[in-house]
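Subject: for your reference before the review

Hello V.,

The reviewers asked for a structural picture of the protein, and I figured it would be easier to keep everything in one thread rather than splitting it across files. Below is the amino acid sequence we used in the manuscript, unchanged from the supplementary table.
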Amino acid sequence: MPQHVQVTGIDEFQSVIDQHKDKEAYVLFCGGKDESGKSWCPDCVAAEPVIDKAVSKLPDDAVFIYCSVGDKPFWKNKDNAFRTNSTLKLTGVPTLIKWGTAKRLVEEDCQKSDLVDMLFEED
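And here is what came back from the structure prediction:
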């Protein structure tokens, strides 16, 4: 079972990704959750069970990072750091990335188990 890490915001994300730079890392960027644990983003809510099921297939030495991009008004701001960061350049949530590669799934593609499994497979 891979290590799971949950972070909120770009600064926490950068810190955690730097700590795990020697590991195979996968990152899921999703909309923030309310007090009941539900995200404002319906695509994130639909994708999470698909991704959670596939994560169990990752190697034990991998790390899976769940990163909250914040509330809806923050995300919708085109100048937010997740959108403007030269490495991330997020265009939608959810976004699932195999860190350090060009492999990424965006929005409804994160709900497709065959695509998620392919992203998680070894090269």
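For the response letter, the relevant points are probably these. Residues 109 and 115 are 7 Å apart (CA to CA). Helices lie at 9-19, 42-55, 72-76, 81-84, 113-120.

Happy to draft the paragraph if you're swamped.

O.
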